[in-house]
Amino acid sequence: MSEDDSLPSAPLCALVPDEEWARLARYPEQTYLAGRTLLRQGDPGTHVLALVEGLVKVVRTEPDGRQRVLSFRGRGEILGEMALQPSSVRMADVRALRKSRACIVPAQDFHRFVQENKLARPIFELAWNRMREQVELCEGAVHERLALALLRLVAAAGGGKPCFSLTREELAQHIDVGRKAVSKALERLGPDCVRVGNRRIEVVSVAGLRKAAGGHVGADTSVGDVAHVTPYQVPRNGTAPRPL
């Protein structure tokens, strides 16, 4: 596994100049507490959300009632853009993992933003890369897949304390295995790498996750230096993350 393999795709705002992302960040803002739903599966795509702070999970409910945690997204992301296609509805819920702030951008305004910044192809490539990421999480040994998923979660969080309100069941949904398989994988990773509590997952060693994921991806990095996990600098003032 290369270092890039352990990273989530670049957020959309990394593809535009700071001043263009700032345009989206000027739209009306809504605050969502942890556990709140930002976008709901089945709703029409009337708008997108520009996530200026926080961390969310994307959860799809299948017709038989089973749920699947598809991905995690951090600040600098656009949420809900796929539902803007003609006759489309939202294919999944977006729920806050932490207190989050997002700006509400009407569909027509976002279409104009995409045209002005020539983002149609980059958005298509971003969607393809995210599909590839989901496939990667369903291949290989369970402990490797879990380590990769946690690395990407830390990167999406963009810094701060790498402690997340997640259950074993949600991790199992995310990498498409059973809960028992996740419990065994967590035991294999060990408390020096990941600590597990009641609805809580804490990453202790990023370096340990990298090693467990199947390759040496950069220098030894402890949880206190999560900047090495992501190639983007994400300012907290609403401006866009920039590649290093």
Overview of the structural elements:
The protein is an alpha+beta fold and 244 residues long. Helix 4 (142-157) packs across helix 6 (179-189). The protein has helices spanning 18-24, 107-116, 120-136, 142-157, 168-175, 179-189, 206-212; strands at residues 29-32, 37-39, 47-53, 55-61, 67-74, 78-79, 93-96, 100-106, 163-164, 194-197, 200-203, 232-233, 242-243. The protein has seven helices and 13 strands.
Which key features would you list for this structure?
about 240 residues; alpha+beta; four-stranded antiparallel β-sheet; about 30% helix; disordered C terminus
Outline of this structure?
Helices cover 31% and strands 23% of the residues. By secondary structure, it is α+β, with helices and mostly antiparallel strands. The longest helix has 17 residues, at 120-136.
The total strand number stands at 13
How large, in whole angstroms, is the Cα Rg? 17 Å
Taking the alpha carbons of the first and last residues, their distance comes to 21 Å
> Mean pLDDT, nearest integer?
85
Helix content: 25-40%
Low-pLDDT windows of residues = 215-244
Shape by Cα distribution: globular
Biggest sheet, in brief? Answer: 4 strands, antiparallel
Order of helices and strands: HEEEEEEEEHHHEHHEEHEE
Count of helical stretches: 7
Biggest sheet, spatial arrangement of strands: 1-8-3-6
Derived from helix and strand composition plus strand pairing, the structural class reads: alpha+beta
